[in-house]
Amino acid sequence: MPANLVFLGPPGSGKGTYAARAAERLGVPTISTGEILRQAIRAGTPLGKEAQGFVENGKLVPDDVMGRALGERLAQPDCAPGFILDGYPRTLPQAELLDRALERRGTRVSLAVLVEATEALVLRRLGGRRTCPSCGAVYNIHTLPSKVEGVCDRCGAKTVIRDDDRPEPIKQRLRVNAEQSAPLAALYRDRGILRTVDGSAPLEDVVARIVMLANEVHA
Q1: Residue 129 catalytic?
Q2: One of 129, 130, 195, 209 is an active-site residue; which one?
């Protein structure tokens, strides 16, 4: 069976980084909802034009439109050996749409990876981000600091803390994620395909465990 993975976990848990690294080793694409929509819009397909209308008006793309866009993306040849979905599904209705899209291809989600991270770790990671308002460069005072504190390496502008990287907005995002991800985790746990990884562990250790888990279900 193809290695069809979904990643769950709070913002700042590192799941995007782990997904990208694991995908390289497994030889499968990493797919995000943003990438799916951008590709559909660039291609100018009827579905892409429909999605573009919502994006240009600053609205969320409805689940049914996103589900159809996802189905088109998963039908592409590079997804034949599997894929890693980063940030989707976020809700039970989205999980149902994903199930239907995969059923049409005669396959299913083979592994759900839950990246666990404490609130303290997430606050440290996200709260440490610094962004350049001029060129868009992103730094982290803990893991990727600028050469001169508070000054962008690229353009010399003063870096700032984005409003959503302050403690209270981060905690709110964590609460929303917990409410959404708990039912998803329960769904995949009931199916026997949920596995957890420690988001505080060294990067290569986490990636190695994810690859091992994926290979086990792919065997």
Answers
A1: yes
A2: 129
**Residue 158 known to be catalytic:** no
Per-residue pLDDT tens listing for the chain (219 residues): 678 999 999 988 988 889 999 999 999 999 988 778 888 888 888 888 888 888 787 777 888 888 888 888 888 899 999 999 988 898 899 999 999 999 988 999 999 999 999 999 999 989 999 999 999 899 999 888 999 999 999 999 999 999 989 999 999 989 988 888 899 999 999 999 999 999 999 999 999 999 999 998 866
Known catalytic membership, residue 189: no
Which of these is catalytic: 90, 108, 124, 189? 90
pTM for this model (two decimals): 0.83
Show the 3-state SS of the chain: CCEEEEEECCCCCCHHHHHHHHHHHHCCCEEEHHHHHHHHHHHCCHHHHHHHHHHHCCCCCCHHHHHHHHHHHHCCHHHCCEEEEECCCCCHHHHHHHHHHHHCCCCCCCEEEEEECCHHHHHHHHHCEEECCCCCCEEECCCECCCECCECCCCCCECECCHHHCHHHHHHHHHHHHHHHHHHHHHHHHCCCEEEEECCCCHHHHHHHHHHHHHHHHC
Q: Could you confirm whether 173 is annotated as catalytic?
A: yes
To the query of whether residue 73 is one of the catalytic residues in this protein, the response is: no
